[in-house]
Amino acid sequence: MTRALCVGHAVQDFVFSTPQLPQRAEKHRATGFSIVGGGPAATAAVAIAKLGGHASLVARVGNDVIADAIQRELEDYGVDCRHLRRFPGFQSSVSAVFVDAQGERLIVNHTDASLPTDPSWLESAVSLEGIDVVLADTRWPDGAIAMLKRARAAGLPAVLDADVPVPKTGSLLQSATHVAFSMAGLKDYSGCSDAMTDIESALRQTAISLKAWCCVTMGASGVLIADARFEQSNVTARTVPAYPVKPVDTLGAGDVWHGAFALALAEGTDEMAAVRAASAAAAIKVTRLGGRAGAPTRVERDSLLESK
Could you state, in order of their start, the residue ranges of all structural domains in the chain? Predict the structure, then answer.
């Protein structure tokens, strides 16, 4: 079984379905409600497990009832939580999530800013023996840098989910072999506009400066890729189209994409095929309610891949 190590954020989401996203300071009535786990690394780990991989999660939480709920749900999905580190006296992360009738979302998150950031415990506590890929998000930069660097040194794919906030120093991005930006993440890092020419230019320049494989996920507009690992003078951007689906709930779709992409790389798939596999997984997810609960199985994902 292919083994992935996911590093970063785990959160408990309180999800409210509403006809429209709240715009005014008044009472709003929800048409639905659920309590689900979230966080980029944690949801990617669930996606990997549902696709048939073995996923371990490295994350920081408080020592509270929220942490109990986070761990219980992850373990129910088959995620290895032995490296879910609890810090007494601190709060676990929570989010209020509003999802409208078109599947778009508004998220209000609280993360305890005083949670210890020192990653030194990772060296002795977390082994890469038997691991095939490391995937990290940007919510704990020190931990992500430490584990991505170790992955690179071991010759493993080191995938960064570059969603906001993206540190401007560049040290986190430089630690990865593959940098997968969200649209918001690329704008945050590069300062580019919404114009496609600016997005292409920003992605190309970022890939060249990092001498890395980079992409930006653009929802229904597909995935834009720039590969500057082997050639920096003539890097072009290429788009992989998205699968056409009717979105119901986009919550967790990017996290599912990153988990599926990392797993495909770990299984020896080339980047273009890994992007298509990840896009198929994310397309299925957005047709379902419930964040990570909508992540597909391998049979479901492969069925969509084979139909196109």
Answer: 3-20+30-114+131-307
- Average pLDDT over every residue of 252-271: 97
Average pLDDT over residues 24-44: 94
Q: What is the per-residue pLDDT across 131-157, written as a single tens digit (0 to 9) for each?
A: 999 999 999 999 999 999 999 999 999
Block residue for tokens 């659920």: 34
Span 214-232, pLDDT tens digits? 999 999 999 999 999 998 8
CATH code for the domain defined by 3-20+30-114+131-307 = 3.40.1190.20
Distances (CA, A) of 254 to 163, 183, 196: 9, 10, 20
**Contact, 245 vs 287, CB < 8 A?**
yes
Closest CA to 182 of 214, 210, 154, 155: 214
Which among 75, 271, 61, 241 is positioned nearest to 157, based on CA atoms?
271
What is the model's pLDDT at position 169? 86
The secondary structure element, H or E, covering residue 133 is strand 133-137
Rounded Cα–Cα distance for residues 38 and 13 (Å): 6
Residues present in the chain in total: 308
Q: Checking phi first, is residue 291 left (phi over 0); if not, alpha (psi -120 to 50) or beta?
A: left
Tokens encoding 88: 């007494």
pLDDT at 15 over 90: no
- Residue in 176, 175, 244, 173 with CA at minimum distance from that of residue 202: 173
Structure tokens of 100? 């409208």
User: Is pLDDT of 308 > 80?
Assistant: no
